[in-house]
Amino acid sequence: MGTKLRQRGKKTVMVSIFNRFILLSLLLFSFAGCAGVPDVYRDPNMDFGAIRTIAVLPFANLSREPSGADRVRDVFTNALLSTGAVYVLPTGEVARGLSRAGIVNPTAPSPEEVVKLGGIVKADAVITGVVKEYGEVRSGSTEANVISLSLQMMEAQTGKIIWSASATKGGIGWNERLLGGGGEPMNKITEQAVNELIDKLL
Amino acid sequence: MNLSISFYKRMLLVVSLAALTGCAASREALQPATLQGEALKIAVLPFENLSRTGAPLKGMRQAMIGILRTDGANILDDDSLEKFMARHRMRYMGGIKGDDAAAIASETGTGAVLITDLENYSEVIPPKIALVSRLVSTERHPKILWTDSVGLSGDDSPGILGVGLIEDPAVLTRKAMGLLTVSLERYLAGKKTTDRGVPDRAFAAKFAPKLFYRSPVLDPGHKYTVAVVPFLNKSSRKNAGEIVALQFVKELAANGNFKVIEPGVVREEFLKYRIIMEEGVSLSNADIFFTDLDADLVLTGTVTDYQDYQGFLGTPKVAFSTILLDRKSREVVWSSRSRNEGNEGVYLFDMGKVNTSDVMTGQMARAVVEMMVGK
Known about the structure:
The complex is a heterodimer of chains A (202) and B (375).
Chain A: H1 2-34, E1 40-42, E2 53-56, E3 60-61, H2 68-82, E4 87-88, H3 91-101, H4 111-121, E5 125-139, E6 142-155, E7 161-170, H5 174-179, H6 186-201
Parallel strand pairs in A: 2-4, 2-5, 3-5
Antiparallel strand pairs in A: 1-7, 5-6, 6-7
Chain B: H1 2-37, E1 41-44, E2 48-49, H2 57-70, E3 74-75, H3 78-87, H4 98-108, E4 112-122, E5 128-137, E6 144-153, H5 169-188, H6 201-207, E7 211-214, E8 224-228, E9 232-233, H7 240-254, E10 258-260, H8 263-272, H9 283-292, E11 297-307, E12 317-326, E13 332-341, H10 357-372
Parallel strand pairs in B: 1-3, 1-4, 2-4, 8-10, 8-11, 9-11
Antiparallel strand pairs in B: 4-5, 5-6, 7-13, 11-12, 12-13
């Protein structure tokens, strides 16, 4: 009788230790989630209020849609100007500046090239970007639109990166898997992604 | 029984008379055009085709001339026009430059030139047609006197059991020509072409740009001279940049706050200075229009989507951005991005659906212009 009780007591202690271990693991996992790498970088020494004029360079296109980068740049330029916080140079003026500065690869300029361009077009900062995804994605029979882009801002005086951020919108979620429908329109998710990036900037 | 038949007959008569009165009203409105139009000799230029397909352009032009002549307009004969065009090597039909405008006036006594662009044409049932016309004065510095557009689809008003469906492209073309010439003749008669009024809330909400920036520099009370430069076309539709620019020319001219420079004159500047826009208008490009054409503003933009559809199923889709460069500040004073689809806000029986991208572009352009002037 006494032996049986002792064995049951041992078992209870083992279960309790196991439960504690599980709980501790879950807590650790959840804390690990909180400690995720942030997708925004802001130079703490930069006075962003001093930036009045920005040149948005052509974005690099890593998506399958050939005009994806141009479309995103067009939306971003308009959205940034519509905030009223900064003045964004017209794309034609930026193209003239790139040509005069002799920048061969405008999607990835060197710090020296940024300084040169800033002097020609009289910009305080230069923004470059990469469109990583633009268009439809498929998973089994489900499809949806997705956009993923990252941007970086460089100070025109030094060519130093002062801000960087990325955003992803759309994609296949529960709604698309259960209800179908192809997700939200491309134009809409582009505006959402661009607005998220502008919120991270301003 | 007799009484009921008599009642139906009376009803039929009333309905018929009402219909005839409608016709009489539209014809009556054309009468003064005949009187005033006599003095103004008009040269109807061959139509420019901006649609992607082949279209019976000669037939359309002759139909338009026929309607205008029947209503008493003074039209320059084809022989004289052809000789003039050959003499001056005039090949571009989408506009007229200052030298040609002055020459046609002195050599043929023409007072105005009618320029028409075919923006969309499809013979697939239901057929579709879209035209934009403008009447330009024959002076060294040509002025846009009148401009209007029409965009029709055979299934615009299908009615019950499809009785209103138009399946014959010729019928639709005649209808489009009729609407356009009525508008022109109303102008010639000294009447306002259309009472546009202030756009209602639903219109503004549907077609207003989704993003916009308006500089306080823009003065709503000032009358600006604007040069409209063809939009950069990044859509898959050929000529979309020219189509959107023409819709802006029409809407800016219809709005009282702007004096629009004839697109033929703007094109001449491009050729003269060999301007090639790869990524849009730069400030140095804009300076040419500011100084040479005495423009206060330069309007341009980028078209990213311009989709039409054929048949019954589908919806047009248009997206473009607009920028307005100011001469004084040398800055962008307006920037916007518009995007719409023809079935937006349509929930029941296709009521309110826009069937052609040209009509939708016109409405989107109108919303932009109204917001530019601060309405």
